[in-house]
Amino acid sequence: MITILSDQTRQEVGEKLDSKLRERKIETQFISLTDLNVGPCYSCGGCTDKTYGQCIHRDDADLILPKLMRTDVMVMVTPVKWGSYSFKTKRVFDKCAIIGDRHYYCKNGELVKGKIGRVHTFMAIGVKDQWRNDEKNAFNNLVEENIKIMNIKGSVYMVDDSNIGTCLESAVEGLSL
Prior knowledge:
- This protein has about 180 residues and is an alpha/beta fold.
- It has a single domain (about 1-175), classed as Flavodoxin domain (Rossmann fold), CATH 3.40.50.360.
- It contains 5 helices and 7 strands.
- The protein has helices at about 15-25, 60-70, 85-95, 135-150, 165-175; strands at about 1-5, 30, 75-80, 100-105, 110-115, 120-125, 155-160.
- The longest helix has 18 residues, at about 135-150.
- It is globular and about 50 Å long.
- It starts with a strand and ends with a helix.
């Protein structure tokens, strides 16, 4: 199963990706972040202690996280500002730490996390009207570091007005393997 988490404040790229995957008979679930209220992670440690595996700050992440526990591939479609995820995407991504292993370990000289859920692949699709090279580099580096920390396979795609079709086709091919 592929779960697409999409912040739709820029374009309907997430919905287009979902449609293309469904055309290929690939099981997906689409979650729009637009109307969800997900607060920030306060790094309070409650999810590793008081309410093990559950954030003590109740919000709409309670609706998303159980779905992510049952997915194989997590795709985040996000507008990009200053080389980073949108604030809505970032809040959801931070809360996803709950479904990772609560313990870090060292692998190839890097601190990484294990996992509890089934997620084995992460894909980030950054969306901008027009990319600058420094923003592309920053977004790529951010996603690559997230993939390394999560200790899973992953990829990054950067969509703009000129390459929506080809970029989505490449992403679909990457997810169809």
